[in-house]
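Hi team,

As requested, here is the filled-out complex form for the 1,3-dihydroxyacetonephosphate run. I kept the field names the same as last time so the parser does not choke. Let me know if anything looks off before we queue the next batch.

— J.
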Amino acid sequence: MRQMIMGNWKMHGLRGRGSELATEIADAIGPVVAQRDVVLAPPFTLTALIAPILQSTGIGLGAQDCHAEAEGAYTGDISAPMLTDLGVRHVLLGHSERREHHHEDNALIRRKAVTAQKFGLCPVICVGESATQKRDGQAEAWLTRQIVECLPRSFQGIVAYEPIWAIGTGKAATEQDIESRMTLIHEVLRRHLETDDKTPRVLYGGSVKPEDAASILAVSGVGGVLVGGASLSAESFLGIAKAGLSSAS
Ligand SMILES: O=C(CO)COP(=O)(O)O
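And here is what came back:
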């Protein structure tokens, strides 16, 4: 399977730096990436600015969240059709930072996923255990529950495994840890989904850096990486993207 590299810029970037970063990435790999193997998810304020920069390249445009409703009196929110209107194809849902700071629960994330799918977006559902859950041996039960409760049985999207304890720490999970979680996640997906293809792509996220990207991408069950901090520099993001492209068969 070809590997997918998705950059989550989180709440970083003003227009100048955002367009510069997107342009550097587009110039370097835009012509060689297949359609949407590489996706950039800038903050909402940069979406319309970056859309034309990526338009004639193979790089996809992503977003970091959307509302569960298509429209309505929801001050400050952004809907799925607003995103597709701008050319967005992938939307992150249920990132641990939104679960923590916006109190998003599995039921809400599931409603968002259904709406995203309905409007033609590919939902990228984030799951992952905390350090305490890992220490207490609760990680597998937690991940299973997150998948079962967040993904509709008709799910046609991507799952991102992002252990909370690895995000922003500079220390990615070990290959052994990632492999065992991938085995569990794929097994739960096979049992849970009622789609023809019960093997959605599963990404790993959490302190991915250029120097360890190739070994993470080689772990069985990994279908790509979701990159936070290292996606904010063209050099480091391109290093990771090139590892993904060279692993493609
Ligand atoms: O949360 C992440 C991507 O969604 C991972 O962030 P870091 O790569 O900065 O650890």
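Two things worth flagging: DSSP finds ten helices and eight strands in the chain. Residues 8, 95, 162, 167-168, 205-208, 226-230 surround 1,3-dihydroxyacetonephosphate (CB under 6 Å).

Thanks,
J.
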